[in-house]
UniProtKB/TrEMBL annotation:
Transmembrane segments: 92-110
Keywords: Membrane, Transmembrane, Transmembrane helix
Classification via InterPro entries: FecR, FecR_N, Ferrdict_sens_TM
Organism: Thauera linaloolentis (strain DSM 12138 / JCM 21573 / CCUG 41526 / CIP 105981 / IAM 15112 / NBRC 102519 / 47Lol)
Organism lineage: Bacteria, Pseudomonadati, Pseudomonadota, Betaproteobacteria, Rhodocyclales
Source taxon at top rank: Bacteria
MF (Gene Ontology): sigma factor antagonist activity
Protein name: Transmembrane sensor
Domain FecR protein: 125-216
Pfam families assigned: DUF4880, FecR
FecR N-terminal domain boundaries: 15-56
Length: 334
């Protein structure tokens, strides 16, 4: 077995780029490997170009565990067949991945992991500002969407997935040990078998809170990806491209307070509170001062009157609210 972290000097730039991609995501890369990678990448503009092309499929790494990626490095026991590779190439073309040269081995493993499977059924869940909507899946799972939300549910053979692009959804997931339920929220992934929980995705963070059962929340870049296991009455926040923060205890009755018309902030960073509020307001609120982003606030406001929070904000935060002629609102330090 070849344990040298460098691709063969005879490898083509595209195959070398694919090899580096797998090695850097395997969880075993060292500082010396990173130095070698940078030397290889800077040695020829074509190396950098091919690596960036391969990174166009970098979302695939989120669907593979470090163990699976290490297995790619150790063996070539089940290479993709020519028929599989041709089929995959056609799909890659359709996804705009032409030019991303990857070895047959890497792409074959991704194919066997089910990354390129076609969903059996697809459902869209979308709400405009002020709307709520419910989606019942054939397996008995129910998704309830809050205002300004976009989610896409896909049912595959052996797994159920939901891509939460923005907004907030309360999930009541039908239990199935043979078909895990996976929520893709950007760099954060939530995995369950059967439970009730709430997921909110704003521009900067994903927040997960569990009403009953348990969920796993994974997030962060490949070199610092972590998983938090939440039980009922627990919640976690994961900022974009960052590992989930520490688990905190929450009031179960308030996890989906939006369903009864309440917006609740409980020791919430001001930046996250304003991002949440923006989903209800007709004009966006901007927070320009970075020092204020982590200032924590608590309060309750009716979802039908989100402006009330802005009126109260100067009472419990060192800020002033400035309304501009175009309707936009700026929060400035006092």
């Amino acid at each position: 077995m070849n344990t040298d972290p460098r691709p063969s000097e005879h490898a083509s730039p595209c195959d070398a780029a694919a090899d580096w991609f797998v090695r850097l995501h395997s969880g075993t890369v060292s500082k010396a490997d990173l130095r070698l990678f940078e030397q290889w990448r800077q040695a020829d503009p074509e190396h950098d170009r091919q690596y960036r092309n391969v990174c166009r499929i970098s979302g695939a790494a989120q669907h593979l565990s470090a163990q699976a990626l290490r297995a790619i490095l150790k063996q070539d026991a089940h290479p993709a067949t020519p028929q599989q590779h041709r089929r995959l190439s056609r799909r890659a073309f359709g996804l705009g991945l032409v030019g991303a040269c990857s070895s047959v081995l890497v792409m074959g493993v991704l194919h066997r992991q089910g990354l390129f499977d076609e969903p059996l059924e697809t459902y869209h869940l979308q709400t405009r500002r002020g709307e709520h909507q419910e989606l019942a899946l054939p397996d008995g799972s129910i998704l309830r969407a809050n205002t300004d939300t976009l989610a896409i549910a896909r049912l595959y053979e052996g797994r159920r997935t939901v891509e939460l692009r923005r907004g907030e959804v309360f999930f009541s997931v039908a239990r199935s040990t043979r078909s895990p339920f996976i929520i893709d929220a950007g760099s954060t992934e939530i995995t369950v078998t059967g439970t009730r929980f709430n997921v909110s995705r704003t521009d900067s963070a994903v927040q997960v809170a569990v009403e009953s059962g348990s969920v796993e929340v994974s997030g962060g870049r490949w070199w610092n990806r972590r998983t938090r296991r939440l039980a009922a009455g627990q919640a976690v926040t994961a900022y974009h491209d960052a590992a989930p923060e520490g688990i905190r205890t929450v009031d179960v009755t308030n996890i989906a307070a939006w369903q009864r018309g309440d917006i609740i902030f409980d020791d919430t960073p001001l930046a996250l509170a304003l991002e949440e509020l923006n989903r209800y307001l007709p004009h966006p609120v901007h927070l320009d001062d970075t020092a204020l982003r982590s200032h924590r606030i608590s309060g309750i406001v009716r979802s039908g009157k989100p402006e009330a929070m802005l009126e109260m904000l100067p009472d419990f935060a060192p800020v002033s609210v400035h309304r501009q002629a175009d309707g936009q609102i700026r929060i400035l330090p006092r």
